[in-house]
Amino acid sequence: VLFAHPAYRASRINRALASAVRDLPGVRFRDLLESYPDFFIDVAREQELLRGARLLVLQHPMYWYGAPAIFKQWIDEVLTRGFAYGSGGTALHGKDLLQVVSTGAPAEDYRREGVHRYALAELLRPFEQVARFCGMSYLRPLVVQGAHLMSREDIETHAGRYRRFLAGYPATRPAPVGLGELWEP
Ligand SMILES: Cc1cc2nc3c(=O)[nH]c(=O)nc-3n(C[C@H](O)[C@H](O)[C@H](O)COP(=O)(O)O)c2cc1C
Questions:
Q1: How many C-beta neighbours within 10 Å does residue 60 have?
Q2: Backbone angles phi, psi at 119, to 5 degrees
Q3: Which residues line ligand 1 (CB under 6 A)?
Q4: What number does the ligand 1 atom closest to the CA of 10 have?
Q5: Contact (CB, 8 A) for 18 and 3
Q6: What is the number of the ligand 1 atom nearest to the C-alpha of 105?
Q7: Which atom of ligand 1 lies nearest, measured to the CA of 14?
Q8: pLDDT in 10s for each residue of the chain, 185 residues
Q9: With a threshold of 0.85, does the pTM exceed it?
Q10: Is 5 helix (H, G, I), strand (E, B) or coil?
C-alpha cells in the first residue's frame, strides 16, 4: 500500500483507513511522505518492492481531481521505460492496481449537474490508463465520499470494508474496470 496525506494530522478518513490495514499480514504499508519528505524518491528500492507485490494500492485523499503531488512524482520517477513499459518493461504485467480514495464532496457533486461535473470514474482515468499502459489490471476503486460530514460509525464501516478486502485478497478481487467503463462508487 502506497499512502500519502499531506495534512495527516487533520485526517479522519485516511487515518482510520490506514489503521485498519497497516498491520495486516502480507500487507506492506508505506507512507510516501514519511519516506520521502523532500520528494527524492529511491527509484531502485521502489521498483524492487513493486516486483515483489501482486497488488499495488494507492491510498490518498482526492486533491484537485487527482492525488497529492508525491504520487505524481512517484509515478514519473518509478515507472520507467524498460521497467514498467517499453522494450523489456514487463515488471508490472499481470499485477493489480487498486485506488483507495476519499473525497471531501459527497457523491452527488460528481455528476454533470453537480459542482464537480464529472464522475470519479472520469476524473481518475489517468490512473486507470497508467495501470493499463503498464500491463496492470485497474480494479474498481474503493471510494469514501462526503468525508467532511461522515460519522465515526460510517468511517469505521468503510475501514472494515477496506480491511476485509485486503485480508481476503485475491479472493475478494473485483472484476477489473473495463475500457471506458463508467463505474459507480
Ligand atoms: C489541496 C486540497 C485539494 C482538495 N481537492 C478536492 C477535490 O478535488 N475533490 C474533493 O471532493 N475534495 C477535495 N479536497 C478535500 C479532501 O479530499 C478531503 O478533505 C479528504 O478526502 C478527507 O479525508 P481525510 O479525513 O483523510 O483528510 C481537497 C483538499 C485539499 C486540502
A1: 21
A2: -70, 150
A3: 5, 11-14, 61-65, 102-105, 147
A4: 27
A5: yes
A6: 11
A7: 26
A8: 999 999 999 999 999 999 999 999 999 999 999 999 999 999 999 999 999 999 999 999 999 999 999 999 999 999 999 999 999 999 999 999 999 999 999 999 999 999 999 999 999 999 999 999 999 999 999 999 998 899 999 999 999 999 999 999 999 998 899 999 999 99
A9: yes
A10: coil
